[in-house]
Amino acid sequence: MLLLGATGLLAPGLAQAAGVSRAALTQEGHHTRLVLTLDGNVRWELSAQAEPPALLLDLPRGAWRGATTLAGAGCVSAVRVGTTRTGSRLTLLLTGPIATPRVQSRDNLLMLEMRPGGGPAFARMAATGKLASAAEPARRPTASLPLVMLDPGHGGRDPGAIGAHGTHEKRITLAVAHELKRQLEAAGQCRVALTRSRDVFIPLAQRVEAARKHQAALFLSIHADSAPPESARLARGASVYTLGETASDALAAALARQENLADKAGGLRLPSVPPEVLSILFSLMRQETRAGSERLARLVVAALDDETAMLPHSHRRAGFVVLKAPDVPAALVELGFLSHPLDEEALGKPAHRARLAAALVQAVHGYLARQQQVALGGGAAAGATSP
Ligand SMILES: [Zn+2]
Description:
The protein is an alpha+beta fold. It has helices at about 120-130, 170-185, 205-215, 250-255, 260-265, 275-305, 340-345, 350-375, and strands at about 5-10, 20-30, 30-40, 45-50, 55-60, 75-85, 85-95, 100-105, 110-115, 130-135, 145-150, 190-195, 220-225, 240-245, 310-320, 330-335.
């Protein structure tokens, strides 16, 4: 990306919290233009100050994620970033009075256009207080947001894999799940629930049930691998699993007996359904779920690939019990090998875990965005219309 003029490219943030992801200050003729790219719903408020002449842009705490070195341009002599009682403040120090700035806020861009103006008008502007602000973000009511079920592997009496230096898998999985939950909630595009939020033992079937009961949009189980001693020095890197082909016929049969099956099979309400039809509906539902799981896994592999070492053939298939919900797309991610000293060391570091979580946020958001398109597109979501 090429930006002209005085620009500040922000260091890639660890978290995907709402904030300013890019900023550019440029001069074009008599105009000086500040363009901010906003990630998520960022509240902002613009005001002016008379002495010394300046424009003040107030942002939520933490929304200004870097770029403290945005250089002055045109009628802006310098840019300062500071904090106020309630958040971050960008101060645009001006070379002199300016006319009322033109403010455009569209999609994820906030643009301020400034040009020199008269002293008395500027003094009145400074006395007015707020010049412009973002409307309170029109968030969807929380309850209507899709639910993401995170499943930190193991817990309680089950430590999972134990690293060469004694790291317990159950601690790593819980730490990553908490960090991922924090980042997802900060971004505000989904609700998040955990199958366990502390060091307790939860049976596998119960984890699957939690996702189904809450009608989760997706289920992501978080683990760390371990290799047998003879290959411990070789095996490292992350991998992602989805359910193998031969899975879950027993579960399917059990579910088929449930009276609410017709609802689950694509929202169809059929007063009386012969068993053969039920079986077809059920199979369509599973195809849909499987397609979703595969897509989720591909997104997770792509996102993790940018951040961490990957196991060869990163997308694998196996019959993990936690992946067997017939109606909730699911993937299991192995974040690395605790049996490998480098992976174990990295997974022990909060900064590395935050990067992994940020990658998983990308994957989850990618998945949910596509789901919404499918839902808006109409019938395709129901599955019963697919061949
Ligand atoms: Zn595990």
